Amino acid sequence: MHARLCASFLLVTLAQVALASLRQLWVPDAAAIEAAAQGFSLAPTPEQTEGPYYPVADDWHNNDLTYIQGQPYKTAGPYLHIDSRLLYPDGSPVSGAVVQIWQCDSNGVYNHPAYQAAYPDKVLNPYFQYFGEAETDENGAFYFLTVPPISYAGRPVHVHVRVFVQGATMLTTQMYFPGDALLSADPFYLAAPDDQKDQLLVTPGATDAEDVHVSQVLVINFSSV
Ligand SMILES: [Fe+2]
C-alpha cells in the first residue's frame, strides 16, 4: 500500500513537472491575458477512448484526407469540412498545437492492421487517407477536409481526435454528430459528464448540395496562465 501511495505521488509529481514545463514553453499573448482577466473558465473537452484503431503511421501527411499524394484520383465526395478551434480553459487560443484525426471511410472501414486482420474481406479505399494532422494557427483554428464517416459496430458516427501541445498528448477524444440516435446507447459517449456531453458534438454549419460543414471548439485541460 505504501509503495502504491509513493508511486501515485511520483506520478502526480511528474505530471506537475510536465505541466510546469509546458507553461514555461508557452508565452501568453495579449488575448490570453485579457481572457484570463475576464475570468473565463471553460470546461475541458471530455476525454474519450482512442479505440482499437489508432493509426500505425510514421507520417500523418496533412489535413486533406480526401487525397493521397501520388494517387491519380481524389476520393469521391460528398466531403466533410471540419473547421474548429482549440482553446485553453481561459478562452485563449492554443497556437502551434498538432491535431490528429482518424476515422473510418464512407464504408465503415478503418485502415489499421488489427482491423484488416479481423475483417479481411473489407476493402480499403486506395484514394482515402484515413488519418491526418493539422497545426493550429494563432487563433487556435484548424481545418480538415475528409468524408463523412458512418456508423460501425453499433457505434454512433464519430471522428477520433488527438491533440499534442509541445509534443505531449493533451487530449484524446471523439467528435460526434448531433441527432445521432446511437448516442443514447453508446457507453463511451454516455460516460462523459452530463453537463459536458454537448462539448463532444460538432455544430452543423452550411450544407450545400455536395458537402457537410461542421465546427467544434475543443478545450484542453491545461491552464495557459
Ligand atoms: Fe472509431
Quick rundown:
The chain has 225 residues and is α+β, with helices and mostly antiparallel strands. The protein has helices at 2-25, 30-37, 113-118, 187-190; strands spanning 80-87, 98-102, 131-135, 141-146, 158-165, 168-176, 203-207, 212-219. The strands form two sheets. The chain has a four-stranded mixed β-sheet, with no helix packed on it. Strands 3-2-5-6 form a four-stranded antiparallel β-sheet, with no helix packed on it.
Task: Give a verbal description of the structure.
This protein is α+β, with helices and mostly antiparallel strands and 225 residues long. It has a single domain (2-219), classed as Protocatechuate 3,4-Dioxygenase, subunit A. The protein has helices spanning 2-25, 30-37, 113-118, 187-190, and strands at 80-87, 98-102, 131-135, 141-146, 158-165, 168-176, 203-207, 212-219. The strands form 2 sheets. The protein has a 4-stranded mixed β-sheet with strand order 4-1-8-7, with no helix packed on it. The site of fe (ii) ion (FE2) has 3 residues, from strand 5. Residues 51, 158, 160 line the site of fe (ii) ion.
Write the layout of secondary structure elements.
Blueprint: H1 2-25, H2 30-37, E1 80-87, E2 98-102, H3 113-118, E3 131-135, E4 141-146, E5 158-165, E6 168-176, H4 187-190, E7 203-207, E8 212-219
Parallel strand pairs: 1-8
Antiparallel strand pairs: 1-4, 2-3, 2-5, 5-6, 7-8
The structure holds fe (ii) ion (FE2).
